[in-house]
Write a structure and sequence with these properties.
single chain; mainly alpha; 0% strand; elongated
Length: 79
């Protein structure tokens, strides 16, 4: 995301159609507000890892994936 775009939104000089992930600090501080769109399909965040069929993920990738899932769940709990 462009830092200029982010500053413009927080300064009240525009709106943006972006994921709230880029604004978690500003939302928590009350500097920006998250307003989900009415379409539930648009508001779902999907993340994935692609690996070769039948391949076990190496330890580092499994650890990263586990941490990513935990952090995304934490973010879902934000107001």
């Amino acid at each position: 995301m462009s830092p200029l775009l982010k500053r413009s939104v927080v300064a009240g000089r525009g709106i943006a159609f972006l994921s709230r992930l880029g604004f978690t600090t500003e939302i928590a501080a009350g500097e920006a507000a998250w307003r989900p769109l009415a379409d539930p399909a648009i508001n779902e965040l999907r993340t994935g890892i692609i690996a070769a069929r039948g391949r076990q993920l190496p330890f580092v990738e499994r650890t990263f994936l586990d941490r990513l899932v935990r952090r995304l769940k934490d973010l879902e709990a934000l107001p």
